[in-house]
Specification:
Number of helices: 2
CATH architecture of the largest domain: Sandwich
CATH topology of the largest domain: Immunoglobulin-like
Mean pLDDT: 82
Structural class: alpha+beta
Largest sheet: 7 strands, mixed
Order of helices and strands: HEEEEEEEEEEEH
Helix content: 25-40%
Shape: rod-shaped
Strand content: 35-45%
Length: 222
Amino acid sequence: MKKLFQSTLIICLILLAFSTVNASTFEFVAKADKEVVNPSDEVTVSMQINDIDTKDEGINVVEFDLEYDENIFESMNFIYKNDWEITYNDDKNSSKYGKTLIHKMVTGVNSYEEIGNIIFKLKDNLDEMETEIKLKSITSNDSNELIDSNDQIIKLKIINNKVTEDNDKTIDIPSYQTTQENNEKNINTSDPLLVIVFTMILVILSLNLVRIIILKKSNECN
C-alpha cells in the first residue's frame, strides 16, 4: 500500500511538472508616453503583447479591468491598432464597470504586436499630486485555457507650471512700480532747479532795466 501511494505521488508530480512546463504564456505591456504631466495635458498609454508561447494557437483576445481616478481625468478614449477592436463597459451601475475586452477576428497572434492606445485627458485647475492608471486581472486564452499576465500600474506625477508663471508676474510688477517711483522722484527734484534758473533770469533782466532807466535820466540831465 505504501509503495502504491509513493508511485501515485510520483506520477502526479511528473504530470504536474509536465503541465507546468507546457503551460501557455504571454506578456501584456502598457506604457505611458510621459510620467510628469500638467493640468489639461493628454497622456497616451500604449498596449502591446509579446513573449507569446501558446504552441500553434496564438492569442486573439486580451481582457482586463481598467481603473483610474475620474476626479482627475475628464475623458478617456481608445485607439485601435492592427485590426484589434476594443469593447469597454462604461455602465457605472454594472458590477463589471471598467471591464475592457480587446479582440481580433483573425487567427491568433504568435509574436509581438501593438494592439491599441488609451488616451487620457486631464482636467484643468488640478493641484500638484500623484495618481495611477491601473490595468488589472489581465488574461488571454489559447483556445483551451486562460492565460494570466502581470498587472500594469502606471504612475503619473501632476505638476502645475501655471503657478510658477503667476509668481513670476507677481515679482515683476513691484520692479516696474519701483522704476516709475524713481522717475517721479527725478522729475520732482528737477522742478526747483528750473524755478531757480527762471528767477535768476528775471532778476538779471530787472537789473538791466533799472540800469537803462538810470542812464537815460542821467543823459537828460546833461
